[in-house]
Specification:
- 2 copies of one chain form a homodimer.
- Chain A is of the alpha/beta class.
- The first copy, chain A, contains 18 helices and 21 strands.
- Strand 13 of chain A pairs antiparallel with strand 13 of chain B.
Chain lengths: ~500, ~500
């Protein structure tokens, strides 16, 4: 069973949703679908692998050109050693409020050979037939199957919102409307590389970026395919570790069960950090965890529950924590194994003891946890478990004098953020979206993923809310990343409503 | 510290060893070193990756030609679907005993990019300078540095013995001697692929292969660099396993600590099988283990102890089982992790939950254990630990109805063998070698590695003894495999002594 079918009962029918949105905007979009997709595909054809400086600059220049064509005052905010931020301003007549729209144009690394078609930067329009995604030529005119998808790295994460924002402006203009709030645009190029220059950029351009709040257009929407407003994000931190075996590979018969086996050692290390139910076993880890409030738990439980359909779709015979609700699990911190690499398997396996083992881990944090504290706790935990911890490649002397040696290389890390549903920005956004939908939009206390929201909160002192448009099954960060067309269309409708109606719901007094 | 230096005190000086060998043989070899190496290099230049049918046949043909040039009656024993055995006979005048010499010409798979020079089938002569192996041209004449080595896949494992046997015959002939036992030659081409056709070949050619015993010329000698007679081998069995996660890769933030993580699951599975001290935790596993006899333990303890020097060389701060002796550990069964593969690490790591995890394991068995019984015990252990075990790719239905699903693909497996030091073949071989050395040769109760010796014992009912010549640090099964020249020279001396003196020490009555 595919999610599209499985969740139909949960999802608001897309036709109804469209009817409640501004009909002129919807009509304009319906006659411009192919042109919108072509503009998006041209952007997706530009390789955007994070840290690829030259490739990212080509993306920034292309996006700036798209913005200038819409009359947005555009410039690149440069920073030494990182890709530029594409910045723009569009002032609204008589507006008293200003929001900044955030998206990022860089994408995760790809292994092209794993992708259907083998070309992550050749955008492909595909329609599902008999459970397979079939390449389909874009017609020259007419409508597109809204269940069709565009496959390319960066499609769902995170170029689609950039295209939807610009198309919404086109639609407003073409239908004789105008934005009711001042708009600023901030399209970043190193979100997938832990936004290492973001804080510096924000500090340098704090005056330029003055606003009443940020709308983060990143990440997927709810698995039920309904639009949502997300009031928080989990923090994150990455860890790469190496444990050491013999200095040269050894025959497993002649030296096995004498020489330490790094495959066993890394398995023991990983299982000492967490169990199969997701319980984090690092001593002291729970001390810094703010338990979810009863209100947050209630909000999580009030959300549609895709759990059962997702389990069917993902072929899961069970989930962690005795089948606890996905939405509740995301209120907690997490520890995920991204990868383990030791020796070789299957056809490439040799009867050898490998020289080392590597594991890649990411942590997801909740408010009050800090990356620095996680580092301290994990290192103390490993030391207490008999590991000698180093941050550089282990020296011969270190290996000779310690039984278990591990090298830890930590990523930068982001703290979590959560804002109240009663804050002015949340009140305005929820009001505008509720009105557009004709019913309450989903209110998610926190998303499971991470965004560099804490940097904004700390540096600029303004609230941030996440407003995603991508489908939950967009395969972001993995092979065959995609954007579902109906999600793009719904995004255009929502941005058009946001830009034109937000001011009407903004509280008149500062609470 | 390199092993060559570290073990000098333990090793019998090579000059003394050479003096006690037949001086004429040694003198002949000294004037033919370069020619011998050139002949070996020509053989090593033929790619011999196991299962590469065409490449293996080129090896077999080349070896047959080398044998025919020595007057050995040679033929290829063909088998459908496998590489041929290169078989030969050399009858001795008035001989009453016949031995068969075994070696194999296939090698383990290679990852060329990991090798120094990047070309595992371009044999390189290298001499160590300042801890590095430096490429050195072969001179046109003169002697070679005996600490120099030839680097190529198949050098130590297991083409060097073939060259040493043939050079020993050349030396005997050139110095006016002749073998005192009938010699048969059996050079196999699928030892690294679990010798799947060996039993069939032995059964088909049982009459042709009639003998008083087999000498297995495979594996490395003792780490002290002294020649040894090895009376047993451990059995072996391989296992490839796959554990399943979600049917598509998931964002670790949005689905982490809800969707099962195959990296955690495989780590838990592996640590449930054995601990970091090498204790095998599979229930019932120890029931089939014959404990080593006091005589075997005494023999293991009487061997030179390279442990401390090896630990220095291998940069090991400790070894498994509280630093127990290597020789004693090899009397026990073992479980080795050959590899683990989940997701990606370091630069390729993505914040994703992988769809599956793979692990590769090999078991080392002692007498009385059978591969079939190990299979039963491991599968019962996994089932008792909540795993649903399948042998084919798991179906959607299996994944949906079981929380933990593992696919097991077992290798064929070999049983262990051990013969008594008092058997006629052992008495003869030990006598000839003791006389050549002028002192008792090392008597090893069992080697740690595996050879298909059980198939011979079961099919032909004759004793087998392992007589290796390769250096222990030959990197067999790994990158930069090599053969140390002094080991090749000592092998030639030993084979010459064996062929000419074996008959004199053979017991006159069958015990």
């Amino acid at each position: 069973m595919r999610i599209a079918t499985a969740l139909l009962a949960l999802a608001a029918p897309t036709t109804m949703l469209a009817q409640r949105a501004s009909a002129p905007v919807r009509d304009w979009r319906a006659t411009h679908e192919i042109a919108i997709v072509r503009e998006m595909n041209a952007l997706l054809a530009l390789p955007n692998i994070t840290r690829d400086t030259a490739g990212l600059r080509r993306n920034a220049t292309a996006i700036a050109a798209l913005m200038q064509r819409r009359g947005i005052a555009t410039r690149l905010l440069e920073v030494s050693g990182g890709p530029p931020v594409v910045y723009g301003e569009l002032k609204a007549t008589k507006a008293t409020r200003t929001i900044v729209l955030y998206a990022h144009y860089d994408g995760q690394p790809v292994n092209a050979s794993e992708w259907q078609g083998g070309a992550p930067f050749t955008p492909a329009f595909r329609v599902q037939r008999d459970g397979k995604w079939v390449d389909t030529p874009l017609p020259d005119s007419g409508r597109l199957d809204p269940e069709g998808r565009i496959f390319a790295r960066g499609s769902g994460d995170d170029k689609a919102p950039i295209i939807a924002i610009l198309a919404a402006l086109d639609a407003i203009k073409a239908t004789g409307g105008s934005p009711s709030v001042n708009l600023k645009f901030f399209f970043e190029g190193e979100e997938e590389s832990e936004s290492v220059h973001l804080e510096q950029t924000l500090r340098t351009h704090a005056a330029l970026l003055a606003s009443d709040g940020w709308i983060f257009c990143d990440s997927p929407i709810h698995a039920s395919r309904q639009l949502q407003v997300v009031l928080g994000v989990r923090g994150s931190m990455g860890l790469e570790l190496t444990v050491y075996g013999p200095s040269r590979a050894l025959h497993s018969g002649h030296y096995g069960n004498w020489a330490p086996n790094p495959g066993i050692l890394v398995a023991e290390l990983v299982t000492s950090l967490r169990d199969a139910d997701g319980r984090i076993l690092v001593k002291g880890f729970q001390d810094d965890v703010t338990p979810p409030t009863p209100k947050e738990i209630a909000a999580a439980r009030a959300l549609p529950r895709p759990d059962s359909a997702l389990r069917q779709e993902l072929l899961l015979g069970g989930t962690e924590a005795n089948d606890a609700l996905l939405a509740e699990r995301l209120l907690l911190p997490g520890l995920n194994v991204r990868g383990i690499r030791v020796g070789n398997v299957e056809g490439a396996a040799a009867n050898a003891i490998a020289t080392d083992a590597k594991a890649s881990i990411d942590f997801r944090l909740v408010p009050r946890q800090t990356p620095e504290r996680i580092r301290q706790l994990v290192e103390a935990h490993l030391t207490a478990n008999g590991w000698y911890v180093t941050h550089a490649a282990a020296t011969d002397q270190e290996r000779l004098t310690h039984r278990k040696v591990v090298r830890l290389v930590w990523g930068g890390g982001d703290e979590a953020t959560r804002v109240s549903a009663d804050s002015p920005l949340a009140t305005a956004l929820l009001g505008a979206m509720d009105e557009m939908l004709g019913k309450p939009i989903l209110r998610v206390p926190t998303m499971g993923g991470s965004l560099p929201t804490a940097v904004f909160e700390h540096t600029l002192g303004v609230p941030l809310i996440v407003f995603p448009i991508a489908n939950h099954d967009d395969n972001q960060h993995a092979k065959d990343e995609n954007i579902r067309l109906q999600n793009l269309w719904d995004g255009i409708d929502a941005f058009a409503a946001m830009f034109t109606r937000l001011d009407r719901f903004w509280p008149r007094t500062t609470p």
